[in-house]
Amino acid sequence: MSLLRHDHVTVRLTTLPVSARVRPRLVVVCVVLAALAFLLCCLGMTIGDVPLGLSDVVPAVLGGGDSATAYIVQELRLPRALTGLLAGLAFGASGAVFQTITRNPLASPDMIGINAGAATAVVAGIAFGFGDGLGTTTLGLLGGLLTGLLVYVLAWRRGTTGYRILLVGIGVYAMCTSLTDYLLSRAQITEAQASIGWMVGNLANRGWENVAPLFAAFVVLFPLVLGLSRWMSTLQLGDEIAAGLGTPVQPVRLSLLLAGAGLVAFATASAGPISFVALTAPQIAQRLARLSAPPVTASALGGAVLVLGSDILARVITPSGLPVGIVTGALGAPVLLWLLVRANRSGSGG
Amino acid sequence: MRPDPEGVALARRPPQQAARALGLLTAVGVLVLLCLLSIWLGSKEISFGDVWRVLLHNDGSADGVIIHSVRMPRTVLAVLVGAALGLAGTVMQALTRNPLADPGLLGVSAGAAFAIVSSITVLGVSSLYGYIWFAFAGALAATAVVYFLGTRGNAGANPVKLTLAGAAVTALLGSFTSAMVLSDPVALNRYRFWSAGSLAGVDSGQLLQVLPFLLVGMVLAIAGGPALNSLALGDDVAVALGRRLGPLRLRGALAITLLTGAAVAVAGPIVFLGLIVPHAVRFALGPDHRWLLPYSAVLAPCLLLAADILGRILARPGEIRAGVIVAFVGAPMFIYLVRRRKQLES
Fold this sequence. Notes:
The complex is a heterodimer.
Chain A: H1 2-5, H2 19-46, H3 54-61, H4 67-101, H5 114-127, H6 134-155, H7 162-186, H8 189-200, H9 208-235, H10 239-244, H11 249-271, H12 277-289, H13 296-317, H14 324-341
Helix pairs in contact in A: 2-3, 2-4, 2-13, 3-4, 4-9, 4-11, 4-12, 4-13, 5-6, 5-7, 5-8, 5-11, 6-7, 6-11, 9-11, 12-13, 12-14, 13-14
Chain B: H1 17-40, H2 48-56, H3 62-95, H4 108-121, H5 128-151, H6 159-183, H7 185-195, H8 204-223, H9 225-232, H10 235-240, H11 245-267, H12 273-285, H13 289-314, H14 322-340
């Protein structure tokens, strides 16, 4: 509790090299979150039609154990757990990226239309009957990336600003959602149901074909984001100061935006637009680490913890297993509400 | 130049009072014209002469029935819902000092939607008469929660906190709504048509049911103009000018609830109207709420009516829902406005 009580750190511009002061805490936060994510990953694999113990799961992942258990774990539960883990990491990291480059805690990818664009593409696919299996993934990917690019292009006017990206993103978001609503109202009821099921964000029935592209994207994009993140702390100070400090503002912002949108698009394509992770995880990580901006790695790990924990909770509460997105929404919102109630003046943006 | 709290750069001097009044009158004229167009155009072609004749005197013919029981209520509904959402958006943006505020964004529509869906799934309510009350309750509860959360703490009601609270409430209710809709195909079927935002299929009885709430909400909103002006200068200045912030915000919240709850219940959550119209008006006229409010109340219905008419023309003999068109007309316009705003350069 005392950890969270001091959710405000005064970072003065004159004391820019703050790294020495905050890093030990950030490392502890990352380690704890990573351990928690690992634990939840293993725990998640024990739940299912055939209950398994941790002592069954761990050897089965490594290739041991009896063949039935090995099959269940490796073909059914491991892909699900990995999809959740990777999607959570991707949502969390991209949330941190978006909140930092726009300098606004609201500017998560869900808010500026990237999830919505992916959803529109997928629903169009389902409604017009060409969106099964791999088609869904491809459509979600294309939709998300195109939307991200569209937001950036539309927000470009001799450079872009965080505020303009957020506003334009909200415009694009509204367009995508209304198009989705229209497609839903045109579709057959079964198709509408399938679409809504996907739009909520779901980890059920994920296979290796869902994990592979997401993993590949993560391995490429996450290091890119990390590499760029040293500029993020200067972007946080405003464009002019950042430029004065030698940050190539526009190239960095475009690269970050595209890398972040890519992460979200791949995660959405694999797991559906799991709500609220990209918005909440960075805020939680930022407060846990007591920083003035969301830290990328801790946000990613926080996202993974949120997604995996919510998926476990969903399966424990209901036998049929609610879609994970419903739980992240239900869980994430009170966390954010609680943070809001305790919030201090330091909130930026708006 | 003094910093503008609304973030609106006034490139030129605001027009004089007479010009503004004339502009408002013109807008009303356009609205009347659009109303006539909306009554004239529909899936059954009726000549303008016949429309005019039947409009003034309902002779009980087939055309008369169509005009009086289908197209008139629909047109009146568009005007009312448009005015309601335009006003709600204006009040909201002023109250939260947040240019991004919109009934959709601050959780009010989500509250109404959630309550309506619960009434469908849990209580089996199937008529509009049934869900209006739930919509109010939901909108009011969501407004109260967002307001409570957004004003807690030492900084008072700051825009970021309010908007975040709104986003949080929206997300929370959205996931509950999805959960209910997913588990109940009947509710899903009703929900997906309602949620696309449509003006079709509303009769005059239903209109009368929401009318009182809309009127009270509109009066509350428009009467609050001067107070909103002082609020725009900042909480401290508003207090120094003798405004009491608590009652002022409460009145605003009540107006927003009435307007949004009723509008959402009859027409579904039409996004964007409450966001874009006040922006457009503020861009042209500057941030004076005594003018912003009436202009928004007239121009928002114009946009909604135009969208509804366009939806009927584009997809004849079917139709594209007004909410979809509004978003498609509104989004580019909104993005254009965003791109033109000089203060977003830095």
